[in-house]
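TA notes, week 10

Several of you asked for a full example with nothing omitted. So below is the full record: structure tokens for the whole chain, then the designed sequence directly under it. When grading your own attempts, check the secondary structure regions first.
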């Protein structure tokens, strides 16, 4: 499921001591300010999944 992928991204892309994303630096040797676009994507996907579950539960 996509849930696992999002959780993996959120587990790796965490805020480093210098305010940059640890995951981006490890994966791509890139200094990206946290939150990076991957974190934005994962959180938005999770929000959509939660909303879908909520709407499904209401029905
Ligand atoms: Zn990142």
């Amino acid at each position: 499921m996509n849930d696992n992928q999002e959780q993996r991204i959120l587990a790796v892309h965490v805020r480093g001591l210098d305010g940059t994303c640890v995951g981006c630096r490890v994966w791509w040797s890139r200094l990206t300010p946290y939150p990076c676009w991957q974190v934005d994507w994962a959180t938005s996907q999770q929000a959509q999944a939660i909303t879908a579950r909520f709407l499904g539960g209401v029905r």
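Residues 2-50 form one domain. Use that as a sanity check on your answer.
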